[in-house]
Amino acid sequence: MQTKALPGFREFYPADLALRTHIFRTWRTVAMRYGFEEYDGPPLEPLELYTAKSGDEIVGQLYNFTDKGGREVALRPEMTPTLARMVAARANGLKKPIRWFSIPQLFRYERQQRGRLREHFQLNCDLIGEPGPLGDAEIIALALDVVRAFGLGPSDVRVRLSDRRVLHALLLGAGVTEPQLPDAYEAVDKIERMERGALAQRLIAAGVSTEAAEGVFAVAALRGLAAVEAALAKVPGGPAAGASLRRVVDALAAMGLADFVEVDLTIVRGLAYYTGTVFELFDAGRTLRAICGGGRYDDLLEALGGVALPALGFGMGDVVLAELLRERGLVPADTSSIDVFLAAITEADLPHVLALAHELRDAGFRAEYALGAQAVGKQLKLADARNARFAVVIGPDDRARGEVVIKDLAGKGQAGVPRDRALERLSEMVRN
Ligand code: HAM
Predict the structure, then answer these.
(1) Choice from 53, 108, 112, 122 to test ligand 1 binding pocket (greatest atom count within 8 A of CB)
(2) What is the distance in A from the centroid of ligand 1 to the CA of 244?
(3) Strand, helix or coil at 278?
(4) What is the pLDDT of residues 236-252, one digit of tens each?
(5) According to a count of CB atoms within 10 Å of the terminal CB, is the N or C end of the chain lower?
(6) Which helix (H) or strand (E) covers residue 429, if one does?
(7) Portions of the chain given CATH number 3.40.50.800
(8) What CATH number should be reported for the domain whose range is 340-431?
(9) Are strands 261-263 and 72-75 parallel, antiparallel or unpaired?
(10) Which residues have C-beta within 8 Å of that of residue 101, sequence separation ≥ 6?
(11) What 3-state DSSP class applies to 112?
(12) Cis (ω within 30 of 0) for the bond into 97?
């Protein structure tokens, strides 16, 4: 019998879940600072939602099957198509621009490797109904502020920024023809992962001339806004194609985020629906995979819901982010602890322990006691093992005096306290 978790699927033991909770809480806090509202959609969707627009790469990784009603369905591999459909369905009633975020679990049958699993959680933040570059800057700033909120700075994380309109103008200017553009995009996208000769061969096989293939590599080698603008100045429609990119870069600089930004045209993005700005966040040393990716997809809502609305957003995964946080020592210390551990000296004291434990829990304390009869010494060892701050010991002599004993487990002594003041006294002590 196969009982192990499937490859690429995680089990979250409490310490792992504590980190996940920290990540989700930080994601929510920062998204809400930008006025974003949380939504969710179904984890299982019609297959067609992805085959229509997501692109071959993601479709090849789908967990899809025929359900018992004969429907072709897929576990969601990404959130953007669901979002586009949901917004398009109620577009008239929603105030624009729409600022929505979600933290879905996503499923992709990927080849497992460092930073890539078969399920992951992804913060999705999308801005819908805003065509201008300030919207692009807003979304990129949000992604950067999320990583900043984890304690990461420009020496840890960079955003590599491009614009498909810029790439389009420069590739045409280099002699690539419209029908050859998808192959040229793919070559630019793969330039860091594939050998140059093999890429050139692919381009030539697609009909790109040797000279234009050289031009494609020259475009991919451009770094920084100045170099990109100088190249744009030499091609038809170049300056107009670059106007948005400049405004995005300027707005990010005005927000004090310039140190994070690298203009880099090799960021193309695998998903087929992007139309303008595209970007990815990486660790500065570039030893890990992308932490986050996103861009503008102005045509997707129309394609999926018949409503023409410009849109852009990003997805930030928890897997690479958690690796980077671990690497940089930014995982919060294990804070699992309880406030009070109650111990009974004799069996006759047990009902009194149960009563006080219940009062404490009702008052919001984290309280525990031993579930089986044990010597007091053993019970106090258990209190230590549970990281309790205080122990309350109840014995026959204390009860005769109408008291309980409160012990500070950080070694700061113990004192008898009237039973009817125990809750009040513990509240003061826990607060201090
Ligand atoms: P994506 O680039 O496919 O974009 O994924 C975004 C991020 O999710 C990646 O940078 C990575 O951190 C994480 N991720 C993706 N696949 C995996 C995996 N198999 N294992 C671990 N982490 C993974 C999208 O999904 C777009 N829908 C994002 C978007 C939202 N664009 C506009 N709005």
Answers:
(1) 122
(2) 24
(3) strand
(4) 999 999 999 999 999 99
(5) N
(6) helix 422-431
(7) 340-431
(8) 3.40.50.800
(9) unpaired
(10) 27, 28, 31, 36, 37, 38, 39, 123, 124, 125, 126
(11) coil
(12) yes
131, 244 contact by CB (below 8 A): no
| Cα(143)–Cα(324) distance, integer angstroms | 15
Summarised one tens digit per residue, pLDDT across range 16-75 is 999 999 999 999 999 999 999 999 999 999 999 998 877 778 889 999 999 999 999 999
Ligand 1 atom 9: the closest Cα is on which residue? 292
- For ligand 1, whether the C-beta of 313 sits within 6 Å is yes
Which of 191, 156, 158 lies closest to 327, judged by CA?
156
Domain 14-41+79-327 CATH (choose: 1.10.10.570, 3.30.930.10, 3.30.830.10, 3.90.830.10): 3.30.930.10
Instruction: Take residue 191 and report the two structure tokens written for it.
Output: 């330039």
Query: How many angstroms does the Cα of residue 378 sit away from the middle of ligand 1?
Result: 50
238 lines ligand 1 (CB under 6 A): no
Q: Of ligand 1's atoms, which has the minimum distance to the CA of residue 116?
A: 20
Q: Which atom of ligand 1 is nearest to the CA of 58?
A: 3
* pLDDT mean over 311-326: 97
**283 CB less than 6 Å from ligand 1?**
no
Does ligand 1 lie within 6 Å of residue 116's CB atom?
yes
> CATH 3.30.930.10 in the chain, residues?
14-41+79-327
Query: Does ligand 1 have an atom closer than 6 angstroms to the CB of 278?
Result: no
Find out whether the beta carbon of 104 lies less than 6 Å from any atom of ligand 1: no
Check: CB of residue 41 under 8 Å from CB of residue 80: no
> Residue-wise over 200-232: b if at least 16 C-beta within 10 A, else e?
bebbeebebeeebbebbbebbebeebeebbebb
Task: Check pocket membership of 314 for ligand 1, CB cut-off 6 A.
Answer: yes
Contacts of 390 (CB under 8 A, 6+ apart): 339, 340, 341, 406, 407, 408, 409, 426, 429, 430
Whose CA is closest to atom 16 on ligand 1? 116
CA atoms within 13 A on the CB side of 179: 3
